[in-house]
Specification:
- The chain is α+β, with helices and mostly antiparallel strands.
- The strands form 4 sheets. Strands 1, 3, 12, 15, 16, 18 and 19 form a 7-stranded mixed beta sheet that branches.
- Strand 20 and strand 21 form a beta hairpin.
- The protein is globular, with a radius of gyration of 23 Å.
Length: 443
Amino acid sequence: MANFSKSTVPQFSVDVYQNEFLPEGGRDVSAIVTVTSTGGGTSGRRLSAPADGGGAGVVIMVDCSGSMDYPATKMRGAREATAAAIDTLRDGTAFAVVAGTHLAKEVYPGNGGLAIADARTRAEAKESLRRLSAGGGTAIGTWLRLADRLLSSAALTIRHGILLTDGRNEHESPQELRAALDACAGRFTCDARGVGTDWEVKEVTGIASALLGTADIVADPAALAADFTAMMEHAMGKGVADVALRLWTPVGVEIAFVKQVAPTVEDLTGRRTQAGPRAGDYPTGSWGDESRDYHVSVRVPQAAVGQEMLAARVSLIAPDPLGGDPRPLSQGLVRAVWTDDLAMSTSINPQVAHYTGQAELADVIQQGLDARKSGDHDGATAKLGRAVQLAAASGNADTAKLLSKVVDVVDAATGTVRLKAKVAEADEMTLETRSTKTVRVKR
């Protein structure tokens, strides 16, 4: 493991966990790559923001469609949550507030740009929230495009969005939303929240996935302020943006997949951009004080017993603030060694086994809920039973608790369950929204 970071950015380290031993002719190599960043600020060591806001910028997008008045507590909760988020902004952060309907309107500062957070602008921004009122439709792509324009109006190193919606994206086509997400991907990260139970889970999680943010449900509008405060605190702790996981492979090595597996499951395989001969970059977004795990799977050429090779080199890459070539932050190596020792070549690395199970857990929850919605009770019972079994085996207590609100657990060890006759909509949506959250492996 090597570390190349400077003191002006978080310090990154890369640790690789794998069983590098293969039987003669074996080709498939898996590794869990743990990336840890320290000194970025989320544990209290925040980076100072320049007075001109050149450090970080945040745009808060608030759903103001007509449904936000039913019940009225949603609009009131959204105003209170936005005010709490504004109070959490550190001095020097560039920010704006957008009201979203079938159009997108800049509520504050309202000049086509961003304000710089201080006591005066925070007070002005909170006063402007009085103008947030419900009326109109929902076209989330227009909100995201306005946020992108606002964040692009200043020289920022950290660009982030917070998006709240209470309904389905009914006033633009799925293709229009997809085009907006494609246009914004890599330009800013975005956390998305659904309030109440009338929104579409796949839309909200799709936004967060495309923009490398988090997604969650806030079923009770009264809980919005605490959630927005936590989101903004997390955003304020980011110290370096646009970090990529760079995977270099020798001639003859094929990449099967690259996935983030903790704290959530996110398949990055299709997001690769070429970074030179036999190298590709996979986006990871912005970092503060945190640790994430990635599952890298490659296929190497066949080889005889006694041979060994470098299967892949994994590096963390960040943009050069001065505009030069991307700079390496840290790296780790994935190896392949061929052996005739059966015990060595058939042993499954505990980290790889754990996260393989966590990825399957996320998949079977989604498949089970889809089957339940379509009326396939046998399929739903089988998939959700498997989910209960995986959650119990891996110690994922949070997911197990959510599953218990959708099924009656007869035997967790065998995955024997019965579908509940009645399930609260909020409970089902919470399970679906949080299905990709994983529990870290115990080392």
